[in-house]
Amino acid sequence: MPWENRRIDLFIPIIVALLMLIGLLAIYSSTRAYGTSFVKKQVIWDIVGMAALFLTMLLRERDLQRLSWFLYFLCFLSLVLVLFFGTVSGGARRWFDLKVGYFQPSEVAKICVILITATILMRRTIKNLILSFLVVTSMVLLVAVEPDLGTAILLVVLWFSVVFCSRVSLKPVLLIMIILLALLPVLYFFGLKEYQKERIISFLSPSTFRQSSAYNVTQSVHTIGSGGPMGRGYLKGPSTIWRYVPKNHTDFILSVIGEEFGFIGISLCIILYSLLAFRIANAIRLAKNEFWQLVDVGVMTIFVLHVFVNMGMAMGIMPVTGIPLPFISYGGSSTLFFCIKLGMVEKSYAVGRTGKEMEGGQLW
What we know:
The protein has one domain (2-355). Helices cover 68% and strands 4% of the residues. It has 14 helices and five strands. The protein has helices at 11-31, 37-56, 61-85, 105-120, 126-145, 149-164, 170-182, 184-191, 194-204, 215-226, 238-241, 253-285, 290-314, 332-354; strands at residues 87-89, 92-97, 102-103, 358-359, 362-363. The strands form two sheets. The protein has a three-stranded antiparallel β-sheet with strand order 1-2-3, with helices on one face. A hairpin with a 2-residue loop joins β1 and β2. α4 (105-120) packs antiparallel against α5.
């Protein structure tokens, strides 16, 4: 097949561009009462992100592995600094105000977990497994202190996904998992703030908290349901016009798509995300070595988790978190770093095509 001989996967940037277009339409609809500033900023970030996707491919393979430790120390430092100098929003310090936009260090942490874990676990020893766990735990704790419980849990799940797909012994990994599960009650009663506990309880009983912590979810579910199969029409959704759903340009942007484009609009998003997941899976299949396999697995995990958790949150089947919908939710940091992650997949795709493992078009 002609596509099998290409050095990059052209489907990936095409799918990303389509998702960005859907995002811009939804962002404009949900923020047009404030002018076009949100859309203009997102257009700039989309362009920067797309450029970053292709520029990431220019990194040399060995430099990317060496970069993992430098990136970790940079990420660790930024996670510490944001606790003291970050912008406060909703009681949390998660962002640096760069005047031209906001930078969220936890987005760098997601890439860090992928690269540092893949680099360390190339040597399949218990010592390296423990080292990767300690390195990731240091970032998880700092993210949790911000507080950003959703991202902290996502980083833990990401680490386990990469580790389970590596070739290290599973016995110590299962032991770590059992210990963490045993500590969950302690975390709930002594580690969570009251509003975080209320979010969990409201998820289990949304009707009881529909006027408080479950208000966003309740409004989002009603808004999506009101769209029906075909939607109410672009710029014609009453809930979107009157902003019945808070944060409908970021965390709950799916409610805008569901109300205005209906089941068909949400299905289109799911199809595009599924195609993107399929292309990443293809990169895993054709990966040059274990390092690239683990990197691709990490990227696949982060995308699937973001899509599943965000859509599930908007539909009331997942607890409320601050996890955005890739390329659709308004946000500069998330768009930029999602693109960088896909740039790493494209790099894996390129080196896999020319690696020694590829002989006669087959992967051995």
